[in-house]
Amino acid sequence: MTSETGVVRTAATDAPGILSGMYFWVTIGACALVFLGAFESLAVTTVMPVVSADLGGQRLYAFAFAGPLATGVIGMVAAGNWADRRGPAAPLHTAVAAFVAGLLIAGLAPSMEVFVAGRFVQGLGGGGMMVALYVVVARMYPQERHPAIFAGFAAAWVVPSLIGPTIAAVVTDVWSWHWVFLGVVVLSLVALLMVVPALRGLSGGDVSVPRAFGRLGWSMLAALAVLALNLVGDIPGIGPVLAAIAVIVALIAVRPLVPRGALRARRGLPSVILVRGLVAGAFFGTQVYLPSLLTDRYALTPTVAGLALTGGALAWSIASTVQGRLGARLPNITALRIGTAFVLVGIAMVLAAAVLQWGALVIAVTWIIAGAGMGLMSPRSSMLTLSLSTPANQGFNSSALTVADSFGSAMVLAVAGSLFAALATVADPFAAVFSLAGVIAAAAVVLVPRVFGRRARAEAAA
User: Fold this and answer.
1) What are the C-alpha distances in Å from 150 to residues 15, 92, 153, 239, 391?
2) Burial of 11: CB neighbours in 10 Å, binned 0-12, 13-18, 19+
3) Residue 53, Cβ density class (10 Å: 0-12 exposed, 13-18 middle, ≥19 buried)
């Protein structure tokens, strides 16, 4: 039995562990797919300068990053609706196929245009893959094991941030940047094969769930608006106006992709989705500019500056593991409150360090706090989303959660990029970007109580 907070009332020890015989291969395969998706999104940062120089594509440099993030939203919506109608097996197979196809196109690209097209296909598959895996978790694992499997997903996402750039650099130096993409193809297929046997035993979906052609159209519009926001901000004169229009269009387009009332912070699941998007935007909107701050202001080498992110990544992984082991002993409301507060504290301390010119070590330590916050709140918001879903809408709600991650991060990064460029010569652009992220994180902290109803808050206080 589960309370409104998603805290399991039955003994967790009654359920097999996620690495027990019946779950072993699907757990390993699912975490491997998450790992490979994360590796590709991070490794491309290392190899893009080489790719751009080799293919002569500096003008499309930004699209190689923005494109997968935007098309990923389309993949998430498509996979979510498909999973609700037919179950997660077919969407997962198709998403992995699209991911592999994108890798092949990018890895064999003779021009930057073809490379960017491959990245678009790769993002489409990667977004759908994550949603399908969330539905696999909902259909296969008992709810008391959700904290553990989501901790595994979080660790699988964080570990590539520790080793991905180094591996990508070595592969590029020893062989070629092409193998950073081509080398993952076989590994992705092997990981899928680990999951396939378990998919055969999962229940199908509900064919009475309507086809989401309308939501697909809105997802395409949202993706276009996000891409436009990355392009129009620097246009002299009318850039800010066009950017504002792009933000409005993006917000209108994303409304049908999330539960009703999410943008108004309605209590329950809508607020879970909103808080997740706000925290993701605040965290990654800050993290992207940390290496630049440390190299520009503190004259650190890129390698040393990257260690600050490594500390945050390790803290994320450790906190995810801890919350997974605690399970129901750590109520979801407590995990979300502590997690969002830690992210806010980390961003606020980074802002203070930038303004007051504190040492680089302070920044590295404070980012560990922010990473720990993400490790607490991210798995628990995923668990809450599934606990507040029914079999008929698990796909839609899982899609909404991943859309919130991608859309929130993309929007904050686009606005932060325009803000940074506009203030680069007249003020402290780092302080402006970190202030924006801090305001967004503070909004998430304020909205956390709306994730739970009145009865849940009374239980948590008891």
Assistant:
1) 16, 18, 5, 41, 19
2) exposed
3) exposed
Give the Cα separation of 301 and 181 in Å (integer). 27
Cα dihedral 239/240/241/246 (nearest 10): 90
Q: 2 pairs with which residues across the strands?
A: 8
Classify each residue of 264-300 as buried b or exposed e, where b means 16 or more C-beta atoms within 10 Å of its C-beta: ebeebbbbbbbbbbbbbbbbbbbbbbbbebbeeeeeb
Closest among 101, 164, 159, 168 to 129, alpha carbons compared:
101
Q: What is the chain's mean pLDDT, rounded?
A: 79
CB 100 within 8 A of CB 188: yes
The CA distance from 323 to 376, in Å, is 6
What pLDDT sits at residue 11?
Answer: 41
Q: Average pLDDT for residues 320-330, to the nearest whole number?
A: 81
**What angle (nearest 5°) sits at the alpha carbon of residue 266, between those of residues 262 and 269?**
65
Residue 167 has a CB neighbour count (10 Å cut-off) of 16
Helix (H, G, I), strand (E, B) or coil at 2: strand
Position of tokens 């699907």?
26
DSSP class per residue in 222-245: HHHHHHHHHHHTTSTTTHHHHHHH
CB 125 within 8 A of CB 96: yes
Instruction: Find the angle CA(299)-CA(301)-CA(307) to the nearest 5 degrees.
Output: 110
Residues 6 or more apart in contact with residue 427 via CB below 8 angstroms: none
What pLDDT, on the 0 to 100 scale, is given for residue 208?
61
Structure tokens at 286: 């800050």
Q: What's the rounded Cα separation, in Å, for the pair 293 and 290?
A: 5
d(CA 392, CA 365): 44
Task: Report the candidate in 285, 275, 284, 268 with the shortest Cα–Cα distance to residue 444.
Answer: 275
Percent of the chain with pLDDT over 70: 82
- What are the tokens at 436? 């924006």
Instruction: Provide DSSP, 319-370.
Output: HHHHHHHHGGGS-HHHHHHHHHHHHHHHHHHHHHHHHHT--HHHHHHHHHHH
Q: How confident is the model at residue 8 (pLDDT cuts 50, 70, 90)?
A: very low
Reduced to 3 states (helix: H, G, I; strand: E, B; else coil), residue 275 is helix
Q: By CB neighbour count within 10 A (0-12 exposed, 13-18 middle, 19+ buried), where does 453 fall?
A: middle
Both tokens assigned to 404: 């919130």
